[in-house]
Amino acid sequence: MASQTSSSDAAAGPGARPGRDAFHPDLPGPDHATAPLRTRLHHVRADALDADTAQSGGMRRFAAISGRTVGSERIWMGQTHVAPGTASSDHHHGASETAIHVVSGHPEFVFLDGTGPEPEEIRIRTSPGDYVFVPPYVPHREENPSRDEEAVVVIARSTQEAVVVNLPGLHVLRERTEEERDA
């Protein structure tokens, strides 16, 4: 009676253990779905994003990668949707660095620049494919000036959850002293 092998077993070659492949002989076999969260890859489908996240008025945030969804410890990633003709509340993301990739629409990102004699509102206008970096604690808001197109962005943060601190308005972020950074 011939033994049955899967295509990955056959590709592994002689001496390979079932469920492994020739490139990764030390990885767990097909029972990986029961392995602890931090020992396997996670696939989060677009229709399975988690809407139970920190929110700002005018926006909807959805978590894909977070401590709760996949057990991440140092990163959060998800989508933000800004409806046509709306703006988020002014906010910042605490100590988290935020990277933004524009998927659709033409969202605008607004912050105050305090390098001149008077604070100046700076507006970054974006297009699909663009990236924006938001440093820790920088107050800003997102706007969607389109009358009919939703803006969608993918966000990655250096914290495991979506930190959002809503503010009553924008203000200039002053450079922290070395003593304040060490405290």
What does this structure look like?
There is one protein chain. With 183 residues, the protein is mainly beta. It has helices spanning 7-12, 67-70, 178-182; strands spanning 59-65, 76-82, 86-87, 91-92, 98-104, 108-113, 120-125, 131-134, 141-144, 151-157, 165-166. It has a 5-stranded antiparallel sheet with strand order 1-2-10-5-8. A 4-stranded antiparallel sheet has the order 3-9-6-7, with no helix packed on it. A two-stranded antiparallel ribbon has the order 4-11. A hairpin with a 6-residue loop joins strand 6 (108-113) and strand 7 (120-125). The radius of gyration is 22 Å and the shape is globular. The N and C termini lie far apart (71 Å).
Question: Mean pLDDT, as a whole number?
Answer: 77
Which structural class matches the secondary elements?
A: mainly beta
Strand order of the largest sheet: 1-2-10-5-8
Overall geometry comes to globular
Number of separate helices: 3
Query: Order of SSEs, N→C?
Result: HEHEEEEEEEEEEH
Report the span from N to C terminus: 71 Å
> What amount of the residues lies in strands?
25-35%
Largest sheet: number of strands, sense, barrel closure: 5 strands, antiparallel
Uncertain residue ranges: 1-13
Query: Which percent bin holds the helix content?
Result: under 10%
Q: What gyration radius follows from the Cα positions, in whole Å? A: 22 Å
Number of strands: 11
